[in-house]
Amino acid sequence: MATAEPRRRGLLDVGDGNKLYWESRGNPLGQTVLLVHGGPGSGRSRTAHKAFDPNLFHVVSFDQRGCGDSVPSAADPSTDMSVNTTEHLLADMEALRDHLGVRRWLLHGGSWASTLILAYAQRHPQFVDGIILIGVTMTRAREIDWLYRGLRLLLPDEWERFHNGLPEPLRNGDPVQGYWQLMNDPDPQVVENAARDWCAWEDAVIAHETHGAPGQYSARVGAERMAFVRICTHYFAHLAWLGEDELLRGAPALAGIPGILIHGRLDLSAPLLTAWELARAWPDAELVVVEDSGHTGSSTMHAALTDAIARFAGTALPTSNRPGTGTPRWS
């Protein structure tokens, strides 16, 4: 069910010279849901809000630092990336919650968004009504290594082209570190070539999927592509500033928060093991495995998401953001 145009929107000054673009739709007295986008650096989805009934939900979306309509853009080589880290994004989410006067919210997102959502919920469980994740990641070193090196076992030709996009001195090291260096090169042509080659690899990983049309990442052009790749390489080169298994070890902090983890069995980008491990460590989470889906989804995955939202809709009452409202439970 589609919602109308945003009721409110704005640029929130979050410090460090950054202003965060946000917008909200639906019922301002309903259950607030925060849509967290993936990437990192992809920018907010223009369609994700359509899954939420505007009569029941107050839907908030935003662009993380450096991308979308937030300013400044990471596409600008002068943009200071030292103030664009996971901790900065978590602080931005809290600043947005406070700015909007939201007491508690439902968190929803996929891929990189699941990492950010888990980190936020573990730090601020008192503000979280529930969580719906798709394509679960925890941005661990082994997950990043699989995506940008391990997958050469299945995509040798495509990976060789990705690897050969690095100059000879960088080919013996970590390709993510190598591309991060290229994205910060003073030569604009070097940066442009690196962004093109990075997106070509991302395309190859999902090209076999039902919804993974070839060229999906490469369709990004200009500043959008530059910001996406610069932010991706920045975060993955630094392992998202998270300790290995930090989010898995922190799962007990999620006790009492209901979660639904929706994951495609055919997901090459983020193998099912990550979602399975999280579900075992988080007693209030339910893992839904979608047999015909990869990272980009399928009609079956869409149905699973619709069902998950419907289960939370039973708690989406106009009083849900008033003081004293408890954490929702499944009926």
From TrEMBL:
| Localization (cell) | Cytoplasm
* Biological process (GO), any one: proteolysis
Q: Which organism is it from?
A: Mycobacterium adipatum
Q: Which top-level enzyme class is recorded in the Swiss-Prot or TrEMBL entry?
A: hydrolase
Tell me the active site.
111, 267, 295
Query: What does the UniProt keyword field contain?
Result: Aminopeptidase, Cytoplasm, Hydrolase, Protease
The record's catalysed reaction(s) read:
Release of N-terminal proline from a peptide
| A single MF term (Gene Ontology) | aminopeptidase activity
- Protein name as annotated: Proline iminopeptidase
This entry carries the following GO cellular component terms, namely: cytoplasm
EC code: 3.4.11.5
InterPro entries associated with the record? AB_hydrolase_1 (IPR000073), AB_hydrolase_fold (IPR029058), Peptidase_S33 (IPR002410), Pro_iminopeptidase (IPR005944)
Q: Where is the AB hydrolase-1 domain?
A: 32-296
Q: State the similarity comment.
A: Belongs to the peptidase S33 family.
